[in-house]
Write a structure and sequence with these properties.
Number of helices: 1
Radius of gyration: 20 Å
Shape: globular
Order of helices and strands: HEEEEEEE
CATH architecture of the largest domain: Sandwich
Oligomer: single chain
Strand order of the largest sheet: 3-2-5-6
Structural class: alpha+beta
CATH class of the largest domain: Mainly Beta
Distance between the termini: 81 Å
CATH superfamily of the largest domain: Immunoglobulins
Number of strands: 7
Number of domains: 2
CATH topology of the largest domain: Immunoglobulin-like
């Protein structure tokens, strides 16, 4: 009897682990958009603590909607979990590295991943 209960609990837990993410995703389909990504840095080992980068998601043209801004964490991760829809310019900057820019279109229920490697700035010559 105890073995049967343990199997039933294990089965229920497994089904919840499988079905809850799908159910949550269907509830989250509100017409919004989500963008997440990672920033790597040239000449910085992935095991080292990553420099912080500023990540800006700006509507294009700028007056057509709100701008979103965040910083990467110590692993280079960033996220815009509740962005609006439309055309955007993604800009990523970090001290000592060349800036990065890309045009992005985010339609309804968009969920995207972005990965970027920032190149080190060229040394300044005297």
């Amino acid at each position: 009897m105890i073995k049967r209960n343990i199997k039933a609990i294990a089965f229920a837990s497994l089904m919840a682990a499988i079905l809850l993410p799908a159910f949550s995703a269907s509830l989250a389909q509100s017409g919004g958009a989500r963008l997440q990504g990672w920033v790597a840095f040239e000449d910085v080992a992935h095991v080292d603590k990553q420099p912080r980068a500023k990540v800006v998601l700006q509507h294009d043209p700028p007056d057509s909607g709100p701008a979103y801004s965040t910083e990467t964490d110590e692993h280079g991760f960033f996220e815009f979990p509740h962005a609006s829809l439309g055309r955007f310019k993604l800009e990523i900057t970090a001290k000592g590295f060349q800036p990065y820019s890309a045009d992005i279109y985010m339609p309804s229920d968009f969920a995207g991943n972005w990965a970027v490697q920032l190149k080190a700035e060229a040394p300044k010559r005297p």
